[in-house]
Structures are given as C-alpha cells and as structure tokens.
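Possible regression after last week's pipeline update?

I re-ran a chain I had predicted before the update to compare outputs. Posting the input and the new output here so someone can diff against the archived version. Not blocking, just want to make sure nothing changed silently.
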Amino acid sequence: MEQLPMSLKIEYGLFKLDFTDYHAVLGIPVDADVKAVRQRYLQIARRLHPDSCKASTEAEKNKANLLLTRLVNPAYEQLSRGHRDYAASLSHLSKRLGAQGDKISLASATAKQLLQAGANLDNLYRTSVDHLASEQYQALDQALAKIAEISELNLVYLMCKSGKGETVKTPVSTPVKTQATGVTQQNSQTTTGATSQGGSVGPKGVSRVDSYIRRAEGYLVKNNFAAAVLELREALKLDQNNSDCHSLLGIAYLKQNKATMAKVHINKALQLNPQNDRALKAKQVLNELVPKSGGSQPKVSPEAAKGKPSNKSNGGGLFGGLFGGKKK
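New output (post-update):
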C-alpha cells in the first residue's frame, strides 16, 4: 500500500501493524457498507475541500487539502469500490490479532474500555466510532489523533471478534455473469458494470454517472454549489467526456462567481455536444456577464452569481431555464 508522508504518519491501532486503516480515516466501522462509505466521504469532503473549507488561515486550508488528497480520497477510492486485496488484508490481520491479541498494547482509554465490553462489544464499538467521527475533522490539528483512536477501536473489535471465532465481513466486488450476455461484470452491494459512456450501472440499469448528476442537480436547486461540484467531479472520474457533467459544472462555477472555471467546463460541454441545451444557455449567460475587454480576471457580477435578475433578464434571472426540462 502507498506510504504516507511523514507529516501524516500514524503509529497507533492498525497503522502500527503496517496497515493503512482506511476505515479509521473515514471514521466508519470496519463492516460499513458502500452507502455508508459514500455518505461519510461527502461529509468529510465538504469540510476539507478548498471550495467549501471554512478554515480561517492559509495554513489550515493547506492542511485540510493535504488530509483530503493524501488520506481521505485514497480511503474513499479503496472502500467505495470494495477492493478485494484490501478486504483480504483486513481479514488476514483479524486472524493474526485473534491469535496474538494478548501481546497488543493499547494507548487510548476508549480502546481499553472496548476490550472489556463483553456481550456489549458491537454496540459499544459503533457508538464509540460514531462519537469520535463526529469530532474527527472539526479541529484539523487533532484529526490524526482521532484517526489513531478510531483505528485502535478497529483493532480491538477485530481482535475480539476473531477471538470468538467470528468473521467481520468487509463488502468487496465480486465478478458475476449476466444471464443475457454471459459478460463478466463487477458487483458489490449493487450490480455494477461498464456502460457505453464509461460509467457503471446499478440494479435497475441506472448509470452511476446519472445518479451523480441527479444529486448534483438537487444540490444546485438548493444553492449548495460546493456539494454539487463534488458530485460532478466524482461523475467525471467515471466518464470524463460527459457533456451534461461539464455543463452542470460550468453552471455551478458561474453560481460561485468563478467565471474562468465556468468557461472551461461550458466550452468542454459544447465541444462534446454542440446541441447541449444547458451549456448553450450557460454560454449565453457567461457572454453577457463576463467583460469582453482584456486585462483583468473574468468575473461574474455578485447579483448574477446569486441568480438575481439583471436588467438584461426576462424577469426570471439570467439563470432562469438552466434547469428546465430535466429528466425525472
């Protein structure tokens, strides 16, 4: 597994066994399903992402970005896709802990308490993880300590379960064959497989890319632009040439008064699909809002960024109609 930079080294819990504890990084139980992984990732990403981070100093913003890019994003990549090698390593580690548990030293009082939980093991474990997760990324200088403490809980939980002869199952992707075609696809908790656009499909044939887009549309309607950007970036990881994703990203950036970024994605959307209705409308908005004279950074007016009508609008604001006609 990838070695963490020295500034992010953790020497407690599963980490001290030369194992990168991605569950601890996200603050979730070791048997969390894919849905829980995603929900928790979005919570953390909104707090740490440069577009939505509320850190007051540049140093804190840099630390938030480091935590996001070097710890949180890799953890999400591993756990959201149910990588078999990670699950296998965790299973092997669990058996090892069950055999050598009496030799493991613990640092946190919470982990020591969990070790004595007995029949209350599962309930106390999940309650303790949830409590630590609620504080995990509030104070960035304490984030690594919280991750370490959660990892000690994970260590104790795995050790106790293995000691009882019980197995903790981590969701993984398993190959299955479709009855219609016999083509091997990947399946985790929902059936996934390649689509013609490079995304993947769920149990009802709904593209994962489409799911991201629909959630982004919902966030845009609620003016939660940072969350929309996160959804759309995830979609583009699956399908970099999705015109709808680029058009919505352009709109999100326009709404945040980031005309330069908006222009990049709006132009990309039209390059991929010259008839993209949203991108065409957004391009018109951009042309009306961005000064045509050179020499300064393009900037959207504050009124337009908030979606307020201007003297050039038709009463519904220049952004009126950008979300019209979307699929139900």
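Follow-up from reviewer: compared with the archived run. Residues 22 and 74 are 8 Å apart (CA to CA). Marking as no regression found.
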